[in-house]
Amino acid sequence: MARNANGRVTAAAGAVRPDEGVLRGALVCVVGLGLVLLAVAVRAECRLVDQDPRGLQEVAVERVQGFDSLRLTDGRTVQVIGLAPAAPLPERASPMRPLHLHEGLREALTARLGEVDQRLILRPGRPARDAEGRLRMHVWLPGGPLLAAELIAAGEAMPRPGPQPAALDTCFYVAEAEARAGERGLWMERPAALPARMLDPRSGALRQGRLRVQGEVVAVRETSRHWVLELDGPLDVLIRGGDRDQWPDLEPATLNGEAVIVRGQVYPWRDRLRMRIRHPLDLEVPE
User: Phi/psi of residue 73, each to 5°?
Assistant: First the structure.
């Protein structure tokens, strides 16, 4: 069994006795039914028709910027509330591939816009602007689905609620549960991890690649700006400033001596290699 750094189980393996299989199957059915009923109840609260029409805006989109920003034809730039990028679909043939962390989400968002002729319905969030001054908006497709929840349910993104709790946050979490249960998109089974000891700081091929790496944490450094996990190989794992908010319950020192699996871009840093991780999906603690 494996769990991420927040304690969520991410994978399981091992033989199952026949009687255990029957009980497990029954449990899966019960849990699945509960998830379906919860999803139906929440989805009704997420639909456009159930929203207060005051404050809703119908807009046309000129283009997608980044992975969660839209440039509107009226000149405004808005941030789609609820979307957090994650690593692309898992590698199947090789542990290396070009690094385009946001590319999959951007393509998915662009595809949804194309299906509705670039038309969307917006409602301002709270707070109304993000740290960069962009307008924060809840976004619905004209047919009614909450856009961020639809992308999360498809496994295209992870949920990222705003700094203040909002009623629609539940839509994002239920969508994530659906994607996990269906093993869709980024929740598909991932490949075996590469031992950190096999990495070579002199290999230029690593500069443009993304890896899933396993190693033991042999040292932890904490500063006001970042956390650094030093693995038993030439790799340091970096969690910066605002990214630390993705792990609100994590005490880095507790990982010292633990075996971890990390996923992200590997790049040269002084005489070692470094990987920056941003989301709980990219840090696991196997059991």
Answer: -70, -20
Neighbours of 261 (CB within 10 A): 22
- Scanning the structure block, which residue is given the tokens 């598909």? 188
Pairing of strands 210-222, 259-269: antiparallel
CB < 8 Å & 24+ apart, contacts of 174-179: 174/38, 174/39, 174/42, 174/43, 174/149, 175/148, 175/149, 175/150, 176/152, 177/35, 177/38, 177/39, 178/35, 178/39, 178/153, 179/152, 179/153, 179/154, 179/155
Which residue carries 């590469």 as its tokens? 194
**Mean pLDDT (whole number) for 94-121:** 77
- With a threshold of 0.85, does the pTM exceed it? no
- Specify whether the CB–CB gap between 230 and 220 falls below 8 A: yes
Residue 109 has pLDDT above 80, yes or no: yes
- Domains, the chain, with CATH or none: 46-187 (2.40.50.90), 194-286 (2.40.50.140)
The label of the residue with tokens 């910066």 reads 240
Residues 160, 251: Cα–Cα separation, whole Å? 21
- d(CA 201, CA 274) in angstroms, rounded, equals 9
